[in-house]
Amino acid sequence: MTNNKAKKATFKTPTGIAQYPWLNNPDVQFDSAGQYKVNLRLSQDEAKPLMDEVKKAAEEAFGDKAKSATLPFVNDEETGDVVVKTKSKYQPSICDSTGKTIPASALPNIFGGSEMKLAGTLFPYQAGGRHGISMQLGAVQLIKLSENSNTVGIQFGAVDGGFVAANDDQPESGGEEGSYNF
User: Which among 99, 118, 144, 178 would be 20 to 30 A from 19, CA to CA?
Assistant: First the structure.
């Protein structure tokens, strides 16, 4: 029998590595209202207490059906690590490594590879014949900020005789604003 009035437990993760963070802006690809979310990579040993906590919340919420509940983590077969999945409709509170909250106006861009801790609420759900536990993200502590991996360290030297782009930002001598060279 399902206990719909199960007390919502809170969670707090150890420091892990962020994957696919949507913490600056919500991801609206599959939900027009948007979701703030981040996956957190942890070693098996670091993740075990958290996984036990989630399984306990499932047992309290779903009783005998807990074994078939969808849980918010997966094992990465390649590395052996555990990937914890969190999300929220609301932007989580984000603080620095000292615990000081970062105002939205000063929030840096947060990229995958950043080291962080997560906190929030374990939320039991039942919908469309499915049941499980989701981890509702409430707060993030940035331990180490990763830079954008798409541009870090990418530098090319000049190649003699190669293509040279026109500088269309500068008006040409004819007085026309930036033109195209077709």
Answer: 99
**Alpha helices of 32-176 — where are they, by DSSP H?**
44-62
Stretch (H or E) spanning 36 = strand 35-42
Q: Who contacts 71 (Cβ-Cβ below 8 Å, separation ≥6)?
A: 51, 54, 55, 58, 132, 133
Q: What is the dihedral of CA 123, 128, 129, 130, to 10 degrees?
A: -40
Architecture of the CATH domain 10-144:
Beta Barrel (2.40)
Does the structure show a pLDDT above 50 at 3? no
- Sorted by where each begins, the domain ranges of the chain are 10-144
**Residue 59 corresponds to which amino acid?**
E
Q: Which of 111, 90, 92 is nearest to 102 (CA)?
A: 92
Amino acid at 151: T
Pairing of strands 73-75, 82-88: antiparallel
Give the whole-angstrom CA distance, residue 175 versus residue 84. 58
In single-letter form, the type of residue at position 116 comes to M
Distance CA 125, CA 67 (A): 14
